[in-house]
């Protein structure tokens, strides 16, 4: 088992060029791993897996067999991004977040972009992420999107594209931090030799961003989790611990006189900032879903009165609707007067007649997704599907065209990956995390998700995916 035997044909590979030569950024890593040999690499991989298991890095998988607690699979061969590429990615992500924040501020106030017919108003009003209750809302410091996870993919030529925006409760950053710690223990010699940008200070930046949302000195901050049965509960508790703030559930909070308090053994304590990891409509049964057992009565009114700050702001979900995604290049142009630095993947809107016809006739060659689907669910990959699955999905599209988009099948870039006792190519994407506070901070790297099933393009952990450490070279 040697990386020298590895080959990836007709696909952009992160480590090797089409001619089979290692890319400059991977020179030292390739040489080092070959010098270790297969047996030592397997030993270090097993050691890394045991370390992750001891840390208890889990997610909950929901399926026909009920809930299953799983360890996130991890691969020890890193994904490396050269510094010159990262500079462009960072600029592009900052540009995108600035524009989307201006967009949210606009559609919940003057709605100029709709009046100017850049986006049809019915597209906004029909989005499940659009909350009428947020009209006229002014979030602290005029920031709506505080934490973002933007999914990036490479095309066949190696150019990065934005696949989707995650602006509600993006998850995965805990895996980034723990993967890095495990890799430093597993390959200390690589970290001594290479100038790899740090990610360990993300909790510091996250706490600073949350503190920026209030003018209270030494504010009380809480991470609001739906509870231990949530798939990302590990991350909620992890971030609360790393920031040195409270971890609370809805039953721990109460609103009195339009102010939010936390129940403690010494009585009620006022909470100034809440990093919520709970969906908008479950947040407050008096303002949104009456049947929510997770929410806190009156917290939305307390927020509107400026008595508590929430991150992300309620209503941000409209901006990561996959139909709205297709308009982001126009949104960037409208608010910033610029072309997108990182382009979108070409997208067909099933709500538009010509696009709908094309999608129905070519579904066997397309990826079709639900506008608000997540986790690899609510989608079909045409070339990987059966005739019957295609026909069934066509009926779903025709019943609700607004709820579906389609994109060409992208051959996502690959990275050498240790599979059993062999090194094989596997497809990857990249989710950088962006924080919007006094300025915009982009974590150097992010979560590289890898499709561990041979030939699969679905990288989600719920669909059998794993992760890699992402190294941005200084």
Automatic annotation (TrEMBL):
InterPro entries associated with the record: ATP-dep_Glu-Cys_Ligase-2 (IPR051680), CP_ATPgrasp_2 (IPR025841), UCP005522 (IPR016450)
Pfam families membership: CP_ATPgrasp_2
Circularly permuted ATP-grasp type domain residues: 78-451
Endpoints of the signal sequence: none
The protein's name: Circularly permuted ATP-grasp type 2 domain-containing protein
């Amino acid at each position: 088992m040697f990386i020298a035997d590895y080959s990836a044909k007709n696909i952009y590979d992160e480590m090797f060029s089409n001619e089979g030569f290692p890319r400059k950024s991977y020179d030292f890593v390739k040489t080092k791993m070959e010098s270790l040999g297969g047996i030592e690499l397997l030993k270090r991989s097993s050691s890394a897996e045991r370390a992750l298991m001891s840390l208890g890095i889990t997610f909950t998988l929901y399926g026909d067999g009920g809930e299953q607690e799983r360890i996130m699979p991890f691969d020890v061969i890193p994904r490396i991004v050269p510094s010159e590429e990262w500079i462009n990615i960072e600029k592009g992500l900052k540009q995108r977040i600035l524009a989307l924040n201006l967009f949210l501020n606009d559609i919940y106030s003057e709605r100029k972009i709709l009046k100017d017919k850049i986006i049809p108003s019915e597209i906004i009003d029909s989005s499940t992420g659009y909350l009428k209750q947020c009209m006229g809302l002014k979030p602290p410091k005029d920031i709506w999107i505080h934490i973002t996870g933007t999914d990036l993919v490479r095309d066949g030529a190696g150019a990065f594209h934005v696949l989707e925006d995650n602006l509600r409760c993006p998850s995965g950053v805990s895996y980034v931090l723990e993967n890095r710690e495990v890799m430093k223990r597993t390959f200390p010699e690589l970290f001594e030799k290479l100038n790899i940008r740090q990610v360990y200070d993300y909790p510091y930046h996250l706490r600073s961003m949350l503190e920026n949302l209030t003018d209270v000195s030494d504010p009380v901050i809480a991470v609001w989790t739906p509870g231990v049965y949530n798939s990302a509960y590990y991350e909620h508790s992890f971030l609360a611990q790393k920031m040195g703030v409270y971890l609370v559930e809805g039953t721990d909070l109460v609103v009195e006189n339009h102010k939010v308090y936390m129940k403690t053994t010494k009585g009620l304590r006022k909470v100034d900032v809440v990093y919520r990891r709970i969906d908008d409509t479950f947040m407050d049964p008096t303002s949104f879903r009456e049947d929510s057992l997770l929410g806190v009565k009156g917290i939305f009114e307390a927020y509107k009165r400026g008595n508590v700050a929430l991150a992300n702001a309620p209503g941000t979900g409209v901006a990561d609707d996959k139909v709205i995604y297709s308009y982001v290049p126009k949104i960037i142009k409208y608010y910033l007067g610029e072309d997108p630095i990182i382009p979108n993947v070409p997208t067909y809107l099933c709500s538009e007649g010509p696009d709908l016809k094309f999608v129905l006739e070519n579904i066997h060659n397309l990826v079709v997704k639900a506008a608000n689907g997540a986790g690899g669910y609510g989608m079909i990959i045409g070339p990987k599907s059966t005739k019957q699955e295609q026909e069934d999905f066509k009926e779903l599209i025709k019943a609700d065209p607004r709820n579906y988009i389609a994109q060409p099948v992208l051959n996502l870039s690959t990275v050498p990956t240790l599979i059993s006792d062999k090194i094989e190519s596997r497809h990857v994407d990249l989710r950088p995390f962006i924080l919007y506070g006094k300025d915009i901070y982009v974590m150097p790297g992010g979560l590289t998700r890898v499709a561990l099933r041979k030939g699969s393009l679905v990288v989600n952990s719920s669909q059998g995916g794993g992760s890699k450490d992402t190294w941005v070279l200084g």
